[in-house]
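User: I've been trying to design a sequence by hand for this structure and keep getting stuck. Would you show me what you'd pick, starting by listing the structure so we're on the same page?

Assistant: Good idea, let's start from the same input. This is the structure you sent:
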């Protein structure tokens, strides 16, 4: 994915909670959180260890625009608030067992 230039308005909105940096799974048209953070997320500080070059280091890291389009931000995230028809990920995380089954190809209707 191509890196989007840092927008000062986006930076000002971010609360640095780190929740959008947890891996997600799309299942039956809905986005679900997994219990697995991005490997670049410092779970103690909730900050990205490679923030300035995150799109180069991690091609799966989304821009704010892409994240809004795909619905990766929590419902109470300042990025998502006020966005018409925004559909946030399901808060109840998918269990590690479900993630394992999906990874093993035992759940195939993603």
């Amino acid at each position: 994915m191509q890196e989007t230039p840092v927008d000062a308005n986006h930076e000002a909105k971010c609360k640095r909670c780190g929740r959008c940096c947890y891996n997600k799974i799309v299942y039956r048209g809905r986005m679900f959180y997994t219990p697995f953070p991005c490997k670049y997320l410092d779970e103690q500080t909730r900050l990205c260890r490679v923030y300035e070059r995150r799109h180069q280091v991690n091609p799966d890291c989304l821009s704010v625009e892409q994240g809004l389009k795909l619905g990766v931000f929590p419902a109470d995230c300042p990025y998502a608030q006020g966005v018409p028809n925004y559909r946030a990920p399901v808060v109840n995380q998918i269990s590690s067992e479900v993630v394992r089954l999906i990874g093993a190809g035992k759940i195939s209707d993603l």
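That's my pick for every position. To get oriented when you compare it with your attempt: The mean pLDDT is 80. The CA atoms of residues 32 and 108 lie 15 Å apart.
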